[in-house]
Amino acid sequence: MFDKSVYIARRKVLASKISSGVVLMLGNSEAGCNYTDNTYVFRQDSTFLYYFGLDKPDLAAVIDIDSGEEIIFGDDVDIDDIIWMGPQPFLKDEAAEVGVGKTAPLAKLEDYIKEAAAKGRKVHFIPQYRYHNMIQLNRMLGIPFEDMKKAPSLELILAVVSQRLIKEPCEIEEIEKACDLGYAMHYTAMKMMKPGMVEQELVGVMEGVCLSGGYMTSFATILSQHGETLHNHKHDGILTPGKLCVIDAGAEIASHYASDFTRTLPVGGKFTQKQKDVYTIVATANQYALENARPGITYKDVHLGASKIILQGLANLGLVHGDIEEMTAAGVQGLFMPHGLGHNMGLDVHDMENLGENYVGYGPGQERAKQLGLGSLRMARMLEPGQVITDEPGIYFIPALIEKWKKEGTNAQYVDFARLESYYDFGGIRLEDDILITEKGARLLGRKRLPIGVEQVEEEMKDN
Ligand code: GLY
Ligand code: MN
User: Fold this and answer.
1) Structural contact between residues 269 and 461, judged by C-beta atoms closer than 8 angstroms
2) Ion ligand 2: residue ranges with CB closer than 5 A
3) Which of 351, 389, 390, 435 to mutate for ligand 1's pocket (most ligand atoms within 8 Å of CB)?
4) 351 lines ligand 1 (CB under 6 A)
5) CATH 3.90.230.10: which residues of the chain?
6) CA distance linking residue 390 with residue 346, whole number of Å
7) Is 70 in contact with 102 (CB distance < 8 Å)?
8) Which one of 185, 217, 219, 431 would you pick to mutate in the ligand 1 pocket, going by the greatest count of ligand atoms within 8 A of its CB?
9) Where in the chain is the domain with CATH 3.40.350.10?
10) Is the shortest distance between the CB of 348 and ligand 1 below 6 Å?
11) Atom from ligand 1 closest to the CA of residue 390
12) pLDDT tens, residue by residue, 114-135
C-alpha cells in the first residue's frame, strides 16, 4: 500500500472530474473454485485498489461528489472468523490508513445506494466482470442483468481511465519491481530449458519463481512450441531440438502491479538460419518501437511503422512482394501479425481492459480499425509521458489462416502462398518488452533487459 496521501490525492482528482452524484466502487469477494470454501487466490479489483488501497474481500466504497463524504463499507471479523483466520485489524483503522474517516457495515450499503437513487441522484459505477458484483448492482439499483453492459457511467469510466493511464512515480517503482521478477522468471527458463523436458516443467518453475517473489502471475502463462497459436495455454509438448518455444509470461507483485515479457527461444540453444532470419525481423521491429515511441506520436503509428519493418523483412525473404506502403495500407501484415503492437500495463496486465478497450486505448477522434491485426491493437493513443505500454511485435505462420487467404485470394497480389508452404511447421516468434513513455522518448522497464539478440540468446543458452 502507498502512503495515504497518494489515495487522498487520487480521490480528490477523481471527484474533480465528476459533475455530481455518488461514485460507487465495488471491491471483490472471494470466489469458490470447486466448492465455496476452496477459493481462487483473492484478487482485489484494480480500480478499488487504485482509489482505496485496501486489499481484502467484501468491501465497497462511495464518494459523494456533492458533499465530499467518503465511506468504506465492510464488516469487522467476529469470533468465528478469528478462530479460522486469526485476529484482523478493524476496518476503521484500515480505512484511516488510506485517508478515509468514515466506515459502515456492508449491510448498510444497499440502503445508502437505494436512498441516493430514490432521491434521483446519479450513481456512478464502472463495468463489472464479477457476477457477485452484478448481483449487488441488480439488488441495489434494479438494473436487469441484460442491461449490465450499458449501465456503467461513461463519465466515471473516462475519469478513471484518464487518471490510471498516466503512472505516478510510485507506480513506476512498483512496475519496475514486477519487471525484475518477470525477468527472473524468464531468465530461469532460458537457463533451464533442455530438449526432452515437458513444457509444463518450465511453466512450473517459472511460476514458482513468480510466486516466491510476488503475488501471482499477471496472466496465465503462455509457453509453447506452437507459438503460431497466439495464446497457447497447452503445455504438454516435449521440448524438441530445432523447435522454437514462445514464452509469454509476467509477474504480479504484492502491490498488484504487473509485468509482461515474451521471448522466443531455440530449443537446444541454437537458431537455424531460417529461424534467425525471421527472428531478426521481429527483434528489429521491437527495437523500432522502443526507439520511436515518444510523446506526440500515436502508438497506432508506431504499430504501423513496426508493420512496415515486418513487411520489408518478409519481402527480403521473398514471402511477400510489392510496395511496402501499399501492402501496409492493404493490411498484408495481418497475415503474419494478427495482433496489435501492445497494450497499456499497470495494475492490470492489460490495464483497465474491463473499463472498455476503446475507452482505454483510443483517444478522441480515433476509431478502431477493422483490419486483421490493426483491429486487435489495444493501445492506439497519442503517447504521453507516464504511460506504460508493451512493445510486442511478432511473426507467425498460421497454416489455417494462410490457407484461408489463399483460398479467398486475399491480398494474393502481394503474398507468395507457394513459398509460405515451407513455413507451415515454423511456429511463431514474439518478442515483448515493457516500456515507459518519458518526456523525450521511451525507456525499458526493469533493471535488466532479457537477452534478445540472436548471439546474446545463443550465448546464454550455450550449455542447454
Ligand atoms: N502477454 C499476453 C498478452 O499481452 O495478451
Ligand atoms: Mn502483452
Assistant:
1) yes
2) 260, 390
3) 390
4) no
5) 169-460
6) 10
7) yes
8) 219
9) 4-164
10) no
11) 4
12) 999 999 999 999 999 999 999 9
Answer whether 357 contacts ligand 1 (Cβ < 6 A): no
CA distances in angstroms from 26 to 100, 264, 366, 370, listed in the order given: 16, 39, 30, 34
Helix (H, G, I), strand (E, B) or coil at 232: coil
CATH class of segment(s) 4-164: alpha beta
* Nearby residues of 170 by Cβ (< 8 Å), 6 or more positions away: 2, 6
Give the residue whose CA is nearest to atom 2 of ligand 1.
Answer: 248
CB-based contacts of 107-115 (< 8 A; 24+ apart in sequence) = 107/75, 108/73, 109/60, 109/62, 109/73, 109/140, 110/139, 110/140, 112/62, 112/71, 112/73, 113/22, 113/24, 113/62, 113/140, 113/141, 114/140, 114/141
In this prediction, residues 244-255 reach a mean pLDDT of 98
Ligand 1 pocket mutation pick from 185, 231, 434, 435 by most atoms within 8 angstroms of CB: 231
260 within ligand 1 shell (Cβ under 6 A)? yes
Ligand 1 proximity of 219 Cβ (cutoff 6 Å): yes
270 CA distance to ligand 2 centroid (A)? 25
pLDDT tens string 42-99: 999 999 999 999 999 999 999 999 999 999 999 999 999 999 999 999 999 999 999 9
Alpha carbon separation from 52 to 46, 72, 140, 257, 395 (Å, rounded): 10, 8, 21, 15, 41
> Based on the number of CB atoms within 10 Å of its own CB, is 52 exposed (0-12), middle (13-18) or buried (19 or more)?
buried
Asked if the 169-460 domain carries CATH number 3.90.230.10, the reply is: yes
Distance from C-alpha of 360 to C-alpha of 356, rounded to nearest angstrom = 6
Report residue 201 as a C-alpha cell: 516443467
